[in-house]
Amino acid sequence: MICAPADPDSSEARLLIGELEAALAALCGDSGAGSFDPAGVRGPGAVFLIARDGQGAALGCGALRPLAPAVAELKRMYARPGSGAGACLLAALEAQAAAFGYREVCLSTRRVNVRALAFYARNGYGTAENYGRYAGREESVCLCKRLPA
């Protein structure tokens, strides 16, 4: 599996993001579409990745954008069920964050998304105070991970 930069407005990216939004809407009644702007993952310190299998088929996506000095935010993380793309994407995004000079990676998800919460916990993410637009929102939980020096 290869995780490589891609245009967040490409047809493959839009298809993957659409699958994520449908899954989120079914799980929690909100697709999360309002919390992602493709322009936000195009500038300095930002990247959008697509995971592909050996035949080049897209299996998942994820993005990284600046959140605060030395802190990146993960956005639109999605892996097609059973693909195994989540671990590849997360590792690639964390490596890219470190290359950009970030010291920490954070994200927000919904409390009802127990599968995502378990995935991030297995990968070293711990709960943090809700930040930005998620502050005061009981349905959201924010997670962060310090990156190795």
Question: Briefly, what is this?
Answer:
This protein has 149 residues and is of the alpha+beta class. It has helices spanning 11-28, 85-100, 114-122; strands spanning 2-5, 47-52, 58-68, 71-79, 104-110, 126-128, 140-146. 34% of the residues are buried.
* Secondary-structure content class: alpha+beta
Radius of gyration: 14 Å
Q: Care to count the β-strands?
A: 7
Task: Give the neighbour order of strands across the main sheet.
Answer: 1-2-3-4-5-7-6
- CATH topology annotation of the domain at 2-105: Aminopeptidase
Q: For the terminal residues, how far apart are their CA atoms?
A: 26 Å
- Mean pLDDT over all positions: 92
Architecture (CATH level 2) name of the domain at 2-105: 3-Layer(aba) Sandwich
Q: Judging from the principal axes of the Cα atoms, what is the shape?
A: globular
CATH class of the domain at 2-105: Alpha Beta
Provide the low-confidence segments as ranges: none
CATH superfamily of the domain at 2-105: Gcn5-related N-acetyltransferase (GNAT)
Q: What string, H for helix and E for strand, traces the elements in order?
A: EHEEEHEHEE
- Biggest sheet overview: 7 strands, mixed
Describe the overall structure.
There is one protein chain. 29% of the residues lie in helices and 32% in strands. The chain is of the alpha+beta class and 149 residues long. The protein has a domain at 2-105: Aminopeptidase (3-Layer(aba) Sandwich), CATH 3.40.630.30. It has a 7-stranded mixed sheet with strand order 1-2-3-4-5-7-6, with helices on both faces. The mean pLDDT is 92.
